[in-house]
Amino acid sequence: MAQSYCDLAREHPLHQAYHDQEYGFPLATDAALFERLALEINQAGLSWQTILKKKENFQRAFEGFDLDRVASYGPQEEERLLSDAGIIRNRLKVRAVIENARRLVVLREQHGSFANWLTLHHPLNKEQWVKLFKKNFVFTGGEIVNEFLMSTGYLPGAHQDSCPIYHQILTLNPPWSQQ
Question: For this structure, is 40 an active site residue?
């Protein structure tokens, strides 16, 4: 049986901090949700440790993940991002983050916020979520959608039932616990 993230994170400073303070905790603001989606997109094909090491650089490069700012990025900002060694310099991923910001601005106009849009569709199973994300966003395959939703509290499974963080998250009433 493979080790769980709860087991693997225990002795690693980057993973332990993420595990104990972020992973599976409900997020509500557009910037926080957009950031997590962008980080999950950038993790594709790479280790989560690589992303955690670059997290502050992503926050700086994408201006705090402000939807309106990122949605307004054009070719000059794209080139700036592609020349930034502090982030993942993959053209498809950079373009996906920018395009998804544009799509999130539209969803926000229609539903008030990204969180409201997620809540409107909750609860769905993983397959339904993946289909919905593929319809509304780019570069969002099954693993990206699953990790995004688990890491933000919309799908269960971020922590083992025996993990103290699991019980801490339950007190926050994450969406998956309301099914």
Answer: yes
Q: What is the mean pLDDT of residues 147-172?
A: 97
CATH number of the domain bearing residue 33 = 1.10.340.30
9 domain residue, yes or no: no
Q: Can 48 be counted among the known catalytic residues?
A: yes
In a domain, 7, yes or no: no
Among 5, 35, 40, 73, which one carries the catalytic annotation? 40
Asked if residue 1 has pLDDT above 60, the reply is: no
pLDDT at 3: 76
Our count of domains for the chain comes to: 1
Do the Cβ atoms of 129 and 155 come closer than 8 Å?
Answer: yes
Q: Which residues are documented as binding site for Zn(2+)?
A: 6, 19
Query: Can 176 be counted among the known catalytic residues?
Result: no
CA distances from 1 to 16, 80, 109, 112 (A): 21, 44, 45, 43
Whole-prediction pTM: 0.96
